[in-house]
Design brief:
CATH architecture of the largest domain: 3-Layer(aba) Sandwich
Number of strands: 8
Order of helices and strands: HHEHEHHEEHHHHHEEHEEH
Strand content: 15-25%
Radius of gyration: 23 Å
Strand order of the largest sheet: 1-2-3-4
Shape: elongated
Helix content: 25-40%
Length: 282
């Protein structure tokens, strides 16, 4: 992948790191500002976390400092969460672009995929004048999204706008996050009832899901999985046969058990899954 310091260096900018790994104070930012300071960049820890004796100033404090010195403040959120993640699942709250802008950020950068749920893309939002300056940069033409990406992203954003923040838009990643364990267990019972006579026993077990995709590394969402006992073959061979099925079925091995986590299966796929398992395992 590409590390942010390397990306900045290729632009000709000089990166000045602020504070220490675990604790950074507002004074650290103030002491790093000089006549050559072009912007302050704050990168959210979206794909890793720090624990222990940690601390950092609130974004409103950094915003006030930046604006007192007439310096743009940019925040890279990474994950692209638009909805309140803690209201969809028993996980932490992931900062949103809306919150960043309310905190006084001039530009906020986030992904169009991941927790936003659209196509793989990078989004820059905020101060209209700064956005216009970015678009006028000749290099922007080389990295801009193509028409297909923009079309899919527009459809995704339209779903959010149609809900007006009053409900959850019908976006797959949000459906996967917010489905209750009770609903998953009901679906699992319906599937296993069709597989009762299989030679390879299929049972319902508790499981854990993660958001993945470089977001919320601490988040563990209670889930339900189908455990398939591999009779006469290894877990690896069972996994290979399922991947080669039509449709392909992708599971994983955890603690010497082969599991199919239903949080990653759409309800409309349940019958396809049951039929494929019947054909492969009987």
């Amino acid at each position: 992948g590409f590390r942010i310091p390397e990306v900045l260096e290729t632009s000709g900018a000089k990166l000045v790191e602020v504070g220490a790994t675990n604790k950074t104070h507002l004074q650290d930012y103030a002491e790093a500002i000089c006549d050559q300071t072009a912007l302050i960049l704050k990168v959210h820890r979206s794909n890793f976390y720090l624990e222990g004796f940690t601390g950092e100033p609130h974004m409103t404090e950094i915003s006030s400092l930046a604006h007192d010195h007439d310096i743009p403040l940019v925040e890279d959120l990474g994950s692209g969460a638009i909805m309140n993640t803690d209201q969809m699942a028993p996980i932490d709250h992931e900062p949103t672009p809306q919150e960043s802008l309310r905190n006084g950020i001039d530009l906020v950068i986030f992904s169009g995929d991941k927790l936003l749920g659209g196509p793989q893309a990078g989004i820059i939002a905020g101060n209209a004048d700064l956005v216009a300056r970015i678009k006028s940069e000749p290099f922007f033409r080389a990295v801009r999204c193509d028409k297909l990406i923009l079309t899919v992203l527009q459809e995704c954003i339209d779903d959010y706008l149609a809900c007006k923040g009053e409900s959850r838009p019908p976006i797959p990643v949000l459906d996967c996050l917010s489905t209750s364990v009770e609903e998953l267990r009901g679906r699992a019972e319906e599937i296993t009832s069709q597989l009762a006579d299989l030679g390879s026993p299929v049972t319902i077990v508790d499981a854990v899901s993660r958001t993945g995709g470089g977001t919320m590394p601490k988040a563990e969402i209670p889930s339900v999985a189908l455990e398939i006992e591999s009779v006469g073959v290894s877990h690896e061979e069972l996994a290979r046969r399922l991947r080669a099925a039509t449709p392909p079925i992708v599971g994983y091995v955890h603690e010497e058990r082969f599991l199919l986590n239903l949080r990653t299966v759409f309800p409309s796929q349940d019958q396809h899954l049951a039929r494929a398992l019947l054909e492969l395992l009987q």
